[in-house]
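Field log, afternoon session.

UNIT: design team B
ACTIVITY: writing a sequence onto a fixed backbone
BACKBONE:
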């Protein structure tokens, strides 16, 4: 299964390179089902993998002028604080046994996987409904809705901290609506925000358990390699059509995880 897992790690990067996001939503399922990592630990690993991959993806966007640093700082600060606090204090404070509902034992791992599955379903709808973005944005002075940006940034940070996903499908619309960024700048800026909050959030886990650095760095390296492959393929493949197909795949995976966790729970080894 680990060989399949390594191949899936490359596919995560390829999807990031092809459609500019979405691939990170598969990181936790790959870690849990193919590498048998505990779900709580998998969310921590995912932060590092997603953060490093997004940082690599943000660099060419920055060189092309598609990263708005002012917006990244304003949106990123509450998000970074929230994700670090969530990983450092909230996640460790959640009891391993939360009780029982309808005959099903509610554990910390089950809660994490169910939250992640719900996020996958939400993200899939975002991808399925995505349309080609026409470059018709009006040029003008950028305006910030500071209260909503602070609230959205904090909420996305908490969500990222809980499930280990980047939350790009939440950040990009927020940047367009709340800070009036053109779509291309919103995509590039979101990568920098995701990189910063994920990597800093990951540091909140460093004292909470033992890390399998060999596995973590190997998967990260494969995902980053996949980004470059995906970037090359994107010149020959329509990313918008691919994004819709990928959205349906993520939707099926989300419902699969919900069903598996509720009716066919499996153990993990580390």
């Amino acid at each position: 299964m680990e060989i399949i897992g390594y191949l899936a790690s490359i596919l995560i990067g390829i999807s990031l390179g092809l459609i500019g996001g979405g691939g990170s939503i598969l990181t936790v399922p790959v870690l849990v089902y193919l590498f048998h990592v505990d779900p709580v630990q998998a969310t921590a690993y995912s932060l590092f993998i997603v953060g490093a991959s997004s940082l690599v993806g943000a660099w060419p966007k920055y060189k092309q002028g598609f990263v708005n640093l002012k917006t990244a700082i304003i949106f990123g600060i509450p998000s970074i604080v929230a994700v670090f606090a969530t990983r450092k204090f909230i996640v460790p404070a959640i009891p391993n046994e939360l009780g029982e509902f309808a005959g099903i034992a509610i554990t910390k791992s089950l809660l994490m996987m169910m939250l992640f599955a719900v996020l996958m379903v939400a993200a899939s709808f975002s991808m399925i409904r995505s349309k080609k973005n026409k470059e018709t944005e009006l040029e003008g002075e950028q305006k910030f809705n500071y209260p909503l940006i602070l609230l959205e940034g904090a909420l996305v940070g908490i969500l990222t901290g809980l499930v280990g996903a980047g939350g790009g499908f939440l950040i990009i619309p927020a940047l367009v609506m709340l800070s009036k960024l053109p779509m291309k700048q919103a995509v590039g800026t979101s990568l920098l925000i995701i990189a910063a909050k994920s990597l800093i959030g990951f540091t909140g886990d460093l004292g909470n358990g033992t890390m399998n650095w060999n596995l973590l760095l190997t998967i990260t390296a494969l995902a980053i390699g996949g980004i470059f492959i995906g970037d090359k393929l994107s010149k020959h493949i329509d990313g918008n059509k691919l994004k819709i197909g990928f959205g349906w795949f993520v939707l099926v995976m989300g419902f699969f995880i919900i069903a598996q966790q509720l009716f066919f729970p499996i153990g993990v080894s580390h």
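LOG NOTE: Residues 44 and 202 are 6 Å apart (CA to CA).
NEXT ACTIVITY: expression trials, pending approval
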